[in-house]
Amino acid sequence: MKNRLLIPLFGVMFLDLIAYTVRYPVFTLAFYDIGSRLFAVDASMVQRSYWYGVCISIYLIATIISAPILSLCSDHIGRKTIILVSSIGSLSFAFFLDWGLSRAIFCG
Prior knowledge:
The chain has four helices and no strands. By secondary structure, it is mostly helical. The protein has one domain. The chain is elongated and about 55 Å long.
């Protein structure tokens, strides 16, 4: 019975891991590829590295801000609902972010 209850939890953790790690290859390609249309052609690597760091840290700052809010909501609404909603939101954010960046890189 205990193992059966852990399957949804591992599924949610897996989706959250995918949402967190899927953006790194796309960000790297978007920010450091010379042919990327995200920056001007003459943009230096210092500028690209700066904006890469800003974009990566936005996710971490949002996590720091939203963690206490989500934990407070989970006390009132329930853990399962909050975990499911936040994981779906995180996965959809990662999907649309990567989709938009890939269109900026490849479609011009």
